Amino acid sequence: MLLIACGVAYYFLGYQTVRDNFSKVICLFSLLFAAYFITYKLFSITHFYWLLTAGFAFRLLLIFSVPNLSDDVYRFIWDGRLAASGTNPFSYLPNELIKLPRPAGLTQELYEQLNSPNYYTVYPPILQGLFWLNGKVFPVNTMAAIVFFKCIIVVFEAGTFLLLKNLLHRVAVPKHASLLYILNPLIIIELTGNVHFEGVMLFFLLGSLLLLLRHQWQGAAICLALGIATKLLPVLFVPLAVHRLGWKKGLRYVLLTGVTTVALFALLFDVKTAQHLIQSINLFVTKFEFNASLYYLVRWFGTLATGFNLIAWSGPVLALLAAGFICSVSFKRINKTDSNFFITALLVITIWLLFSTTVHPWYLTLPVALAVFTPFRFAIVWSFTAILSYSAYQSQPVQEQLWLVAAGYCLVVAYAAWELLMYKKAKAVL
211 to each of 205, 214, 219, 267, how far by Cα in Å? Predict the structure, then answer.
């Protein structure tokens, strides 16, 4: 009955809810997270395969829903149709192209659904390849294009489950821990429901980590490059991999990763289009802000001191500080063991997100997956509190409820601190 109730909740959230109805969004998510907690605690060991099947059934239930909590999918379709017509998607801004002769699929209706028509695309070559394939297969049918994307994500998620299973065996964690990811409502809604390709990136990253732990560094380097060419985020794990391999082999790993990444990007980029990508990435650090934590504190103090927003300065500084902390924790001796390796990997992505100026809910995909291999569950709590950010869409233009953002982060930090205290006590007893 609990799983049937979840199916009904997923149906209403995926097919009958718009993101500006925050009360409905939070109620449905709360119901799903409560069921998620109960089923994992009570049934994950005894009914593992039933719950695994349910996790994928929920994903399939959302296959034909139109993304209603995010409109990013329309840029994916736009880029794909542009690429399928023979035009590099990094060459034109949508607001430039809409004034020119263009492929039939790039309609005024599609243009009006774009959330960033004044910015160059920011999606790396692996995703652009998937977008191109979609544009070739479905050059004008938007609904079919959405379903196609969702099917791709579900296939990669099936691969992710197999990687989770192998990695859990590697670190001697029971296989039912994979349900923390498979059944997580945020993962199901944001990846399959709202069409976000963090699921593809995660597949390549976990594949790289598995090969790394098996001492197959060449394959690990190529997989990591594929992850970087999907979403840039996996580059954060290069220092941890180097430390794991040792400097001599680690430098070869870096070289192979770098060469493979450059080769993948070279398929799409010349100097001009590379500049456009860098320009778009720079916007995430110097202009965009959403659901941040440390950055909002810096912004508040900066505004008090100067009277204006210092994001153009504070964003890059916070990114550099995060990179420094990531390198520091990555090169600690304890990371040589498999269990500590994953704890540090979780810490790496946590540091990055805490120092970021923008943290959309689907960014929590990676910490939720890495938490599976560790005794820490604060990322699971975070995956729930991230939903509070949807309160911003109750008004137009978007206006964040900062007290809700602060409450969410306070809960996550408090829970993480409690977990760390319990972990240290347990280690001290041992």
Answer: 10, 5, 6, 26
Cα gap 187→361, rounded to integer Å: 9
Tokens 């109730």 belong to which residue? 5
CA distances from 125 to 161, 322, 375, 382, 419 (A): 24, 26, 35, 30, 39
Contacts of 176 (CB under 8 A, 6+ apart): 44, 45, 48
Has residue 77 got a pLDDT over 90?
yes
Strand partners for 290: 358
Lookup: tokens for 172: 């001697």
Largest CA distance in the chain: 71
Please state, as a whole number, how many other Cβ atoms lie within 10 Å of the Cβ of residue 16: 12
- What is residue 282's predicted lDDT score, i.e. its pLDDT? 83
C-alpha dihedral sign at 376, 353, 194, 400: positive
**Angstrom distance (rounded) from CA 78 to CA 255:** 34
pTM beyond cutoff 0.90: yes
Task: Return the half-sphere exposure (C-beta side, CA atoms, 13 A cut-off) of residue 53.
Answer: 6
What angle is formed at CA 347 by the lines to CA 342 and CA 353, rounded to 5 degrees? 130
Residue carrying the six token digits 């909002």: 296
Q: Could you tell me if 66 and 115 are in contact, meaning their C-beta atoms sit under 8 angstroms apart?
A: no
Distance CA 246, CA 236 (A): 17
Query: Tokens 């504070």 correspond to what residue?
Result: 314
Share of the chain above pLDDT 90, in %: 81
pLDDT at position 46 over 90:
yes
Q: Residue 276 forms beta bridges with which residues? A: none
Contact of 183 with 55, CB cutoff 8 Å? yes
Do the Cβ atoms of 193 and 58 come closer than 8 Å? no
Note the pLDDT tens digit of each residue in 119-156: 999 999 999 999 999 999 999 999 999 999 999 999 99
Half-sphere exposure of 318 (CA within 13 A, CB side): 26
pLDDT at 240 over 90: yes
Over residues 15-21, the mean pLDDT reads 93
